[in-house]
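User: Study the shape:
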Amino acid sequence: MYPKNLFPKNRRLHGHISTGDLPFAFSASHQPLTALTALATAQRLVLGAALLLLPALAHGQDGVVLQRRLVHDGSGGSLRSYLLYVPAAYDGQEAWPLVIDYHPYTRTSAFQMNLDRMDLVADTAHFLIAYPQGLRIDDPMDGLGIGWNFDGRVSSNDDVDFTSQLIDHVMEDFVIDPARVHATGMSSGSQMIWAVACGLSDRIASVAGVSGPIDEDFKATCDAGRPYSAMLIFGTADRFWPPDGAEAGPYVWANPQETTDFWGRQNNCSPEPRSEDLEDVDEQDGSSVTLLTYTACDVDSEVLYFRVRNGGHAWPGGSRPSSTFFGIVNRDISATAEIVEFLLRNPHPMMGTPIEQETTQGGMFRIGLAYPNPFGAATTLRLELADDAHVRLVVYDVLGRDVAVLADGPMKAGRHAVRFDASGLPSGTYLVRLTAEGGLAATQRLTVLR
């Protein structure tokens, strides 16, 4: 249900929108809006709503995608745009997190939305997603194209200020928790998150990026001024960002681990991160993942680096397949699930309260976010144990009957991925429950949609 006051009261029109401005619908097939949907949208606009509605069609999602526009003085008075995904469960009765998701160089907000499919967890994790649209820049490596002025040198657009104004713009019409505004992005979109981490550390709670490092000038000038949680996912075979770093004109980019080392120093972490080889869930994808965790950091900060062996310039677990040009797409992890869980457990330390974690006597014990959720045929559950333990992982229906036993036996310490095939179950709500020695339990709600 959407609240009656979901739409603004015509305080101003967020830019003129014509049928030629309609982006792609949120669908796995990337097909454009049908004429019927476009007509319905046009009718809403004629009736006076200041937002453009696009239905989220794939996987039974009931949320909407809104095309919103604002005039940004920091871009020379340009009309700036962004897409906003609003889950169907949002009713404006409580403040929800907002995740800002930046697209790669030469791409669009619609591309990023279809790449990471963050909507597939936003509905059950309860957060909104803004996908900003970049403007023309002069990229130091690739020349003119659509992208982000991540350091103030590649265009006259002030994209940090645009981000701040975008947050205000969303907050005018939606109830957003100011302690839980986060940023993520891919490639140059990942470079943009570092810019807002330092330039808007009072507003952006935490950041997580894929395939986009920091540069040496950034290392010399950035000081978030507080404990700041940051995460990076990077492939060792990324042709655009070699593992030893890159140079172009006045730019010298750090390698991936130098990027996370920088955030480790910002948070006074131990200089040597703890290394853990993650489970090779998909042995056919030609890659594997090592997680580097920075320890002994300042309170309320966390720094992680997912190093994807043989991984290309790609979003792990994303919608695009491996290719000769961009390289291997790792399928052992879902970058979307890892990023969302990281961001939501790291609110602004001066304003928010971290999410409580289930613990055993030996340490952490939890179920990570299932992805996708809602889902049709199957989803992947992610478990984490600090110690070896006998565990039982069971799925129950709403009547408390067990419908699937996914694990019942000893499990090694570390992270594990467990696939849940629900193809034989009807649509509805289910509860997955993880129990371990000592009687402690963690639960998560799952939604099956046909």
User: Anything to note?
Assistant: Confidence is low (pLDDT under 50) at residues 1-52, 55-60, 357-362. The two ends are 19 Å apart (CA to CA). The chain has two domains: 68-344, 359-448. Residues 359-448 form a domain with the Immunoglobulin-like fold (CATH 2.60.40.3880).
